[in-house]
Amino acid sequence: MKLFQGKVAIITGSSRGIGLAIAKRLAMEGAKVMLTGRDEAMLSKHVVDMNKSEKLADYVALDLSKPDSPGQLVERTLQRFGKIDIVVNNAGATKRGDFLTLTESDWADGFALKFYGAVRLSRAAWPYLKQARGSIVMIAGVGGRTPGPHFTIGGSVNAAMLSLTKALSDLGIQDGVQVNAINPGFIRTDRFNLRLKTFAETHQLTLKEAEQEMIKEAGVAKVGEPDDVAALVAFLVSDAGRLLQGSCIDADLGQTKTI
To answer: Which residues have CB under 8 Å from 79's CB, separation 6+?
Structure first.
């Protein structure tokens, strides 16, 4: 029997990168997965690919920054699969840049999808997670613990995600819902590749040289892969990970230096 046979998972931001890797990993272990994001063409393609052997995946294309979208996602998941055992709040990218030039709109956008999307989806799914004694995983980021001057929005949003994790984990003790967070560092996603390209052009380096320089500056071992984060999520929401509650795990290859 597969690890998540009979389980149902919602993974936000799953049209690419870390979210897609998580969806594929949970499906590989037998879960029925609901993918979601704003790129319907990509979501449709991934679901077709994932359903070639078994009908384990479906998708809803929507914008989780809109207040009604999380409830719609929960409703669609229940209609399609009948229950919810796992929610992975992964959606949301925030704008980098100089603090003095970032606009009010940049800040509002940064919180709207990643933070408020996670708040609303967790709230909408909570009664069903309580019934299933299920799990929530927040995909935050290293900036939540170690902010920097060019990541003021992302650091603030990720810090809010970690605070939300701690608060909901307390409620989860009462209601039987497991809540944890993961702080990825350098992970080879489209977003990282764009940052790498910009770094290479700015410093007149090859991509390989730029990657080595970024690794050196961050003081890390290497760049991680989306599958690495997916494996950690699979452990967290499995029976083997039930000891973890309110944990904020730095999956960053040593980038976070503080205790």
So the answer is: none
